[in-house]
Amino acid sequence: MNEVSDSLQLLIESLRLAKKFLLDTLEKSNLNLNIYTHLDADGLSSGAILGKTFLRKRIPFQIRVLKQLEKEEIIKLAKDAIDGAKFIIFSDFGSGQYLELINHFQLDEAQVPFLILDHHLPQEVSNKEDPNIEKIHQDSIPWHINPYFYGIDGSTEISGSGLCYLFSKIIDKKNVDLSPIALVGATGDIQNRGSNHSFTGINSYILKDAIEADLIDEVDDLSFSPIKPINEAIAYSNNINLPGLTGNSSTTLKFLKTIGILMENPDGNIRTLNDLTQSEKRDISSKIIEYALKYEIDPDIITQNLIINRYILKNEVVGSELHELKEFSKLLNSCGRSENASLGIAIGMGDRRIAYQKAQENLVEYRKKISNALNWIQKDGKIKEMDYIQYFYGEDVIADTMIGTIASMLNFDRSGIINNIKPIFGCSKRETKGVYKISARASNKVVAEGVNLSEAIRKALSLSNLDELGGGHPPAAGTVVPIDKIELFLKNCDKIIKEQRHITNDTK
Ligand code: C5P
Ligand code: ZN
Known about the structure:
- There is one protein chain.
- The protein is an alpha/beta fold.
- It folds into three domains: 3-182, inorganic pyrophosphatase (n-terminal core); 222-373, no CATH class; 380-502, Diaminopimelate Epimerase, Chain A, domain 1 (Roll).
- The chain contains 19 helices and 13 strands.
- The chain has helices at 2-28, 41-56, 71-83, 98-106, 132-139, 160-171, 179-188, 201-212, 230-235, 249-259, 278-294, 299-306, 325-336, 341-348, 354-377, 403-412, 444-448, 453-463, 486-507, and strands spanning 32-38, 61-66, 86-91, 114-117, 144-145, 216-222, 307-313, 384-385, 390-393, 424-430, 435-441, 470-472, 476-482.
- The two termini are 28 Å apart.
- The mean pLDDT is 92.
């Protein structure tokens, strides 16, 4: 606990220097403040927190949302920045590209000042133990804020929006009311990976802020897949084992009927966990515990695996997507991934009218696309296996903006759609650019066994002689690969993952 607070203190001191750097530079110059942020829920939450902060401080700003800070994009941004006299904040990306940013922004005569608030592994850093981290940190004060500089794990303990929140609170402590949005971002990045899906590290400090400000409540919920029909979600749950129900979706269906759970929504769609009311969930949970007792299964084990933490936003309308962190983050994600990023930013900044309404409409469409994609991907032969990885192509069904979401969903599925012991690589063509967008995901277990996808992607790019930027976190990373190099790249990923597994096995 003390260690976390020591590192938090160091992080906060750096954020103070960053604040001074930003405010002094803006005061001395006539620069326009521009925020560039990532299109996922964490990136949009980051943008919303920064936007709200500068709006309250009456500092004019503009926000732009990007798919990723790719090389080509950086060159374009640098040109715009010089022409447009800008101060740039990069949120939820920038660390993985910081050398490119230095090259294109600072070495130029015009010198464009920028600030990075990011939680990804920095460029050329392979893991959190990498000895180069300290040097990168020292060389980049005050303009580069990254949790790895302070021994904080950016993959699990703080997100981009968490950093923006801490920064915002340093600018004005009244911004504590933005703490729920920081947790929306952390949830979007699946950082609630503590026991029962709780937050750990700095995220738990942010949660404490939100609870103390009476903005969030922690409640219990069922641990089943929220995307499967509820009978299948229970039958194929990896969390619990119930003789007679596990592995058998038709007996599970009968079990649910005896409890009185309807299997269809009024619109005829099959119900998932997301569709159940709190009271239905309570009924299911108590009947499952009763069922387990009949088979003399320790009720503590069942309860531990059956119940997870969910976080309720107390000021939001009950039953709306915004009432629960996970659903809120999904709404933002759906905005970002269907070319409606500005709606997500507006909602994060507090719009509950037009932007929220439009985002809800968009969500219906987005869910249809996701559900189509998930049905389609389960057809024979779509998921291909190599020795150490598995991969799939989005073809004309999964767009490049959605490939990461589908890869994440498959990664969390435990019903056998994918082989959970191998990382999964989703590849979707971005036709206009002649590249595949790659999204790689691995389970916690696979990461604990030594797999680091950020490192694997960077090494595979280099082995394939590609100079694209790539990276992310050990369990989730991405890049782009020219269409004609995809097979070579995947083969090299397979090779690197094999090495990562063997290195850990050898050292065991
Ligand atoms: O794009 P995708 O969702 O697959 O990315 C997974 C993770 O890797 C995200 O956190 C993303 O920000 C990060 N990433 C990165 N650099 C890239 C591509 C993705 O840091 N070039
Ligand atoms: Zn993030």
